[in-house]
Design a protein that fits this description.
The chain is α/β, with parallel strands linked by helices. It has 3 domains: 2-56, OB fold (Dihydrolipoamide Acetyltransferase, E2P), CATH 2.40.50; 62-225, P-loop containing nucleotide triphosphate hydrolases (Rossmann fold), CATH 3.40.50.300; 234-291, Ribonucleotide Reductase Protein R1, domain 1 (Orthogonal Bundle). It is built from 9 helices and 13 strands. The protein has helices at 94-106, 128-135, 153-159, 175-183, 191-198, 222-225, 234-240, 265-271, 277-291; strands at residues 2-10, 13-18, 23-28, 40-44, 51-56, 62-66, 72-77, 81-87, 110-116, 141-144, 164-168, 206-212, 216-220. It has a 5-stranded mixed β-barrel. Strand 12 and strand 13 form a beta hairpin. Helix 1 (94-106) packs across helix 7 (234-240). The N and C termini lie far apart (46 Å). 38% of the residues are buried.
Amino acid sequence: MYLAHVIARQGKTFIVEDEHGEQHACHARSKSVDAVCGDNVECEAKDQSKDVIEKICERKNQITRIDNFKREKTIAANVDHIIIVVAATPEFSTLLIDKYLACAQLNNCKATLVINKAEMLNDNNIDITKLENTYKDLVEHLIITSAKLGYGIQTLRLALSNETSILVGQSGVGKSSLINRLLNNNNIRVGELSENIQQGKHTTSNAFAHNINNSGKLIDSPGVRTFMPIFKDVKQVMLGYSEFLSHLGNCKFSDCQHINEPHCAIKTAVEKNIIQSERYASYLENIQEVSNT
């Protein structure tokens, strides 16, 4: 028996990396062992066949999405850092940025905001100063990049060191191009064993944890690339806004939702510019969205 880390998956085949850096092809003991990239697992070694994943170790967090059947599906585990990618085009929504930030907060992850397609910023009148003023205290880094020109890639690569990260963002912002630049490779792949199971194809079932700077891991899969965070309830929305946390519990009413209630500590903080009005407005939008579902 040995401990390992899941670094790739295609269908029912897993690639794990043990503590010595050796890669092993595995399958799961049962359907209940549904491992994802980022999982730490216990494996049994086999001589003539694939090794067996016997158990998934306790996760510190798990990133989940809702599938087409309204079921919650885990797409990555033990994530340290969520990289939120927006771009000069398509037009981005600060509401969506705030949802991703809430996801990071709820999963105890760091967050970095990346503004891609730097070569198009002037043509699209993106107010970088406003974005910096809104998010500089809420993210680990704010990085401007151009996947096309290679600008900012080394800064982003350094930000991913020593951690397990995922890139998220709406379609068209250049996540795939950024990953290719980070890997210095136009063909996304991991290790010889991973190449064998994927047979040269990046199919919809593939998931990989790529090495970054020989110290960090970047988890990439179709599920991660299309991930859109969804709040389950009002409490999640409240806890997802990090600047709200020190004020929660100080309202007159214990069940205050910070909307129309009198003597609300959150609204008072907004009036005093302790909490930004733009962030409070997006909180109200998210509350409304949850209430309508």
